[in-house]
Amino acid sequence: MNSYQCIAPDVKLGRNVKLSQFINLYGCEIGDETKIGAFVEVQKNATIGKRCKISSHTFVCEGVTIEDNVFIGHGVMFINDSYPRATTEGKLQTEADWKVERTVIKKGASIGSGVTILSNLTIGENAIVGAGSVVTKDVPANSIVAGNPAKLLRYIEQTLEVAE
Question: Is 74 a residue of the active site?
């Protein structure tokens, strides 16, 4: 194990996965031929598909599913709790005090750098999310969204061809 990579023994890595320095992976699954950039954390019960690119400084939290052929830009933040709190009845919360809220990024989507993606939503196939956006609701397939909150700009006329 590389001293600059923290990869827990329960991580499932596919074939030809490329891992940069300074990463933290635990309890997750990474598909074949995916590339993970520097300073990325992928938490337990997160799944990243085949042939994805996860750029540096990205945080993929528990409950996130990223399907095949997805691009995630630099510094993308996923959120898995709509109402986060530090304490319950005056005591520090534990995992038993909250339920993971899921997020799904469908095949072929592209997420720009600096995007924040809230929980309980789906970003559709081949959708593009503009850099710096805050995604607060589902994004339709083959669409382009941007802004804070992210709003539909237009639909992509021709779907992008991606390798299977």
Answer: no
